[in-house]
Amino acid sequence: MRPVMAMLRLIRRQETGQILVTFALLLPILLGMTALAVDLGNYASERRSLQNSADSIALAASRDLPDEDAAIDAGKNWASKNGVALSAVTITVTEAGVNNPNPKVTVDIRKGHNFVFGRIVGISSSNVGAHAVAIKTSPGGLAGVSPWSVLQSAQEAATPGALVTLKYDANDPTTGNFGIIQLDGSGSAVYLDSVENRSGSLICAEGVTGCTDTSPVCTGDVCPSETGNKVGPTRTGVNYLMSTADPHCDTFAE
């Protein structure tokens, strides 16, 4: 038995030695793979961050299209407020044309990225970038809209968060019509149905090809205003909308 036990102990020592040698040989490879995973993860994370910034800058700038200077200023302003160096950002505005029916803004962000462990194998840095495009467009036609209008003067003066009057009362303004537009026809019953169920007519924007108006009263993108104030149908229609709204937005305070 003693010779057998001695042989087993010798085999175990040899196996232990082989494991140590194998581990020593694999350790640099394992460390290299770990370092590569860390560096690539950091690189991908920064690229995602830059892409989010590029998307947001493009959206912020597109609000001021087609005004090129205003759009670029809006994009730069957003970048500055959110910690994106302007030296890394390029904003380009393309006007609408034959092959480009809508004005668009293009945002490119490019900056250097330093690797932590890549320097061991001679890769100390690389460029990381993001690209985003946003356009400003208008629908060719609309259906299912409410029969209320916004005065041009109110639209021009409106700012984010401002209160805009859609339907005037009988005292403001004191004369004329009061913000109701005819979409499906005239009369209190037709107006009430348009308030409660939205208009069933398709109204096309001016100059849009391939769109056919279905409104019986509108001509192109021009619809007549409704005479009178229609206090009763307005109150009935608004109360109906409030009663059928989602509980989270069924009061004016919400």
Give an overview in words:
- With 254 residues, the protein is of the alpha+beta class.
- The chain folds into two domains: 16-135, no CATH class; 141-246, no CATH class.
- Helix content is 41%, strand content 13%.
- It is built from five helices and five strands.
- A three-stranded antiparallel sheet has the order 1-2-3. A two-stranded antiparallel ribbon has the order 4-5.
- Helix 4 (188-197) runs parallel beside helix 5.
- It starts with a helix and ends in an 11-residue tail after the last helix.
- The relative contact order is 0.09.
Structural key phrases:
single chain; 254 residues; alpha+beta; two-stranded antiparallel sheet; 5 helices; 13% strand
Give the topology.
Layout: H1 2-62, H2 68-81, E1 89-94, E2 104-114, E3 125-135, E4 141-142, H3 152-157, H4 188-197, E5 203-204, H5 231-243
Helix pairs in contact: 1-2, 4-5
Short description:
This protein has helices at 2-62, 68-81, 152-157, 188-197, 231-243, and strands at 89-94, 104-114, 125-135, 141-142, 203-204. The protein is an alpha+beta fold and 254 residues long.
Q: Which band does the percent of strand residues land in?
A: 5-15%
Number of strands: 5
Q: What proportion of the residues is helical, as a percent range?
A: 40-55%
Instruction: Output the number of helix runs.
Output: 5
Q: For the residues shown, what is the average pLDDT?
A: 77
N-to-C SSE series?
HHEEEEHHEH
**What shape does the CA trace take?**
elongated
Strand order of the biggest β-sheet: 1-2-3
The termini sit apart by 89 Å
Structural class: alpha+beta
